[in-house]
Write a structure and sequence with these properties.
Strand order of the largest sheet: 2-3-1-4
Radius of gyration: 18 Å
Low-confidence stretches: none
CATH architecture: 2-Layer Sandwich
Shape: globular
Number of domains: 1
CATH class: Alpha Beta
Number of strands: 4
Number of helices: 3
Distance between the termini: 45 Å
CATH topology: Alpha-Beta Plaits
Strand content: 15-25%
Structural class: alpha+beta
Order of helices and strands: EHEEHEH
Amino acid sequence: MIVAFSVSPLGVGEDVGEYVADAVRVVRESGLPNRTDAMFTSIEGEWDEVMDVVRRAVAAVEARAGRVSLVLKADIRPGVTDGLTSKVATVERHLAADAPADGDAPA
């Protein structure tokens, strides 16, 4: 399963990067495949291990902020592994097929 989630403290002002870093640190230390971008952190693994990491990431932020917002989206697909890279590779393959050949580019 792949879970994309965002955890943010509430009531601490606009600069939340330090709090978010606490959550991302938990994810990275988990050893599970993960990726962080501007909006979400994605993590891949089995249900129990992924949800435990999400719970601990929320707890890390909650330890410093009295209120926390969690947004979570899950792709539950038993038997699929390496989805973090294979899903993106599939999209990139389709995009590459659509690209004009070097001699076909408009002038």
